[in-house]
């Protein structure tokens, strides 16, 4: 497989290119300029991009796909040549779907808390020795294999083109943590931002599931309004106590001490539990893992 990435200056594009290279694909890429934090990574992976700039000779008819990043302009010379050659041109999230379409895609979405929930799910998998692929933002890391059944995808604003292409990933198991709007959002207003997440709920494959924070009014509204024939699992802040500065959560085996604190993180944990149970991790195994998360 040969793939060219246009716009490696975005960390998730670069990580996706590196992950594909590690799988054994022939990977090339380009970017107009690389900032200092990415320059060293690019230097280490000289096979992917040897120097900054756009090079139309990297675009040829032997490429299986051309993947372009969220900041690539329509008049980019490499993109124009790819269109001229009628190549398979994909966004980052469209390509990610193609690479994971035979897997169970577990996608965690939300304005502020998707990274926390995704990290908790991933930690529980590692603790219970379940091998998974992943696309994470904290740490910013991507792993793709041919063997693993599950892929955990942090569908937060940073990972997939500011949320514009969330629906392209078509999750089997999804979670929606929260919907907020501020001046950093890529959408023009709250309603457009919320509508993006409504489309995300509708994009879950038929027979799949959406786990959602019922304490967030907008999340609850968008999920309950969806006519998509999927299972819907609400979650909320679990029962807990604080004793001598330590947080204890109520579990089937009694009270368990946690390293995390605060209602928001505890609510994230409740959502992560639902996701993990759908991945084959039972409640006891999940709480054992969470006792070491923090």
Automatic annotation (TrEMBL):
It comes from the Bacteria. It comes from Flagellimonas marinaquae. This is Mur ligase N-terminal catalytic domain-containing protein. InterPro entries: Mur-like_cat_sf (IPR036565), Mur_ligase_N (IPR000713), MurCDEF_pg_biosynth (IPR050061). Residues 3-98 form the Mur ligase N-terminal catalytic domain. One of its GO terms (molecular function) is acid-amino acid ligase activity. Pfam families: Mur_ligase.
